[in-house]
UniProtKB/TrEMBL annotation:
<dbReference type="GO" id="GO:0016616">
    <property type="term" value="F:oxidoreductase activity, acting on the CH-OH group of donors, NAD or NADP as acceptor"/>
</dbReference>
<feature type="domain" description="D-isomer specific 2-hydroxyacid dehydrogenase NAD-binding">
    <location>
        <begin position="149"/>
        <end position="315"/>
    </location>
</feature>
<comment type="similarity">
    <text>Belongs to the D-isomer specific 2-hydroxyacid dehydrogenase family.</text>
</comment>
<dbReference type="Pfam" id="PF00389">
    <property type="entry name" value="2-Hacid_dh"/>
</dbReference>
<feature type="domain" description="D-isomer specific 2-hydroxyacid dehydrogenase catalytic">
    <location>
        <begin position="87"/>
        <end position="344"/>
    </location>
</feature>
<dbReference type="Pfam" id="PF02826">
    <property type="entry name" value="2-Hacid_dh_C"/>
</dbReference>
<dbReference type="InterPro" id="IPR029753">
    <property type="entry name" value="D-isomer_DH_CS"/>
</dbReference>
<dbReference type="InterPro" id="IPR006139">
    <property type="entry name" value="D-isomer_2_OHA_DH_cat_dom"/>
</dbReference>
<keyword id="KW-0560">Oxidoreductase</keyword>
<dbReference type="InterPro" id="IPR006140">
    <property type="entry name" value="D-isomer_DH_NAD-bd"/>
</dbReference>
<keyword id="KW-0520">NAD</keyword>
<dbReference type="GO" id="GO:0051287">
    <property type="term" value="F:NAD binding"/>
</dbReference>
<protein>
    <submittedName>
        <fullName>D-isomer specific 2-hydroxyacid dehydrogenase</fullName>
    </submittedName>
</protein>
Length: 355
């Protein structure tokens, strides 16, 4: 069974096998191509690799890489940072096909690098799942509180110096519905439970949520409308795949509970944005907290900029000062030693599913 990394869990676990590799023999060498911008500061940890690992080249395009030399050196690992195109990665996979064993994405979502070539490579593909979940969970509860306490009203009162009291809502006993109960969804559920919320979730494989202490009910993908109808707050934290693209639209917003709030930290194209705008304008939704959009940067002509019931952020709610640096450290300190010592890699993705 695949095993997954979580920053908080691993920070507390001092017995994990990859942490101390001093007494373990090297069974695989890691000859790494860093597919990245050459001046990317978050890749500094690649300058201090464990024994048995070497960075052969750094480049963001095929033209910046000496492919014949990499083939001769039998490069077997690709470390992919944000920036280079999916077409560049696909070409590099093809060029290194005979020696390639492992591809690691510094991002959690692999939609930006996903191609048929990636899906069909025999190499193992891993990602940075678990590195960004806690801050996105915090944002989720912020968005819930933003609408429960009506912060726009509060800020308007302050601006007018108006001592105007108004009623607010509790999050306690409200229902958070989570579409995509992976690491982000689970981190949000944990915080929601601390607030006293009821948590329901939608998952492609509901059996994976058996005995989960934070989820009260788990539904299969065929019950998406049911989740919308039962939820006061709906979090979309699903990955973008062929299966999830456009899965949330008018039908779901029509089914939504009165005064429901929609929150999206997954990917913009999962949602029909025009249908979302209409639901926000006509009152089917109370509001929305959006960190991701169908087109990024969000076009200035988008109506979402103008709607008073939208909390909008520029896809930065996981962007702590060190978040990408920590992701590189996960590769260097956790997964790379596992590869060198022939152990199970963390965060292996299902290449057919795309996450």
């Amino acid at each position: 069974m695949p095993q997954y990394w979580n920053r908080e869990k691993f920070a507390a676990d001092k017995t994990r096998s990859a942490q101390d590799s001093s007494n373990k023999s090297i069974v695989n060498e890691a000859r790494i191509v860093s597919l990245a911008m050459k001046d990317d500061p978050s890749n500094v940890p690649l300058e201090n690799l464990p024994e048995g690992a070497t960075v052969l080249a750094v480049g963001s395009t095929i033209d910046e890489l000496d492919i014949p030399t990499l083939q001769q050196q039998k490069a077997n690992v690709i470390f992919v940072s944000p920036g280079p195109s999916k077409e560049t990665l696909a070409k590099l996979i093809q060029e290194l096909d005979s020696s390639l064993e492992w591809i690691h994405s510094r991002s959690a979502g692999v939609d930006a690098i996903y191609t048929d070539t990636l899906a069909n490579t025999p190499a193992t593909v891993t990602n940075a799942k678990g590195a960004f979940s806690s801050t996105l969970a915090e944002y989720t509860l912020l968005a819930c509180s933003y609408f429960a306490k009506d912060l726009p009203h509060l800020l308007k009162n302050k601006g007018r110096k108006d001592w105007n009291k108004y009623n607010i809502l509790e999050l306690r006993n409200a229902t958070l519905g989570i579409v995509g109960y992976g690491d982000i969804g689970q981190a949000a559920a944990k915080l929601a439970k601390a607030y006293g919320m009821r948590v329901i979730a939608l998952r492609r494989n509901p059996e994976k949520t058996k005995d989960d202490p934070y989820c009260d009910v788990v539904y299969g993908n065929d019950q998406l409308n049911v989740l919308f109808g039962e939820s006061d707050y709906i979090l979309c934290s699903a990955p973008l795949t062929a299966e999830t693209k456009g899965m949330i639209g008018k039908e779901q917003f029509d089914a939504a509970k009165t005064n429901a709030v929609f929150i999206n930290v997954g990917r913009g194209p999962i949602v029909d944005e025009e249908a979302l705008v209409e639901a926000l304008k006509d009152g089917r939704l109370k509001g929305a907290g959006l960190d991701v959009f169908a087109t990024e940067p969000l076009p200035k002509e988008s109506e979402l900029w103008e709607l008073d019931n939208v909390l909008l952020s520029p896809h930065n709610m996981d962007a702590t000062e060190t978040f990408m640096l920590e992701s590189t450290k996960f590769f260097v300190n956790e997964n790379l030693p596992r590869f060198l010592h022939g152990e199970l890699l963390l965060n292996e993705i299902d290449k057919a599913a795309g996450y």
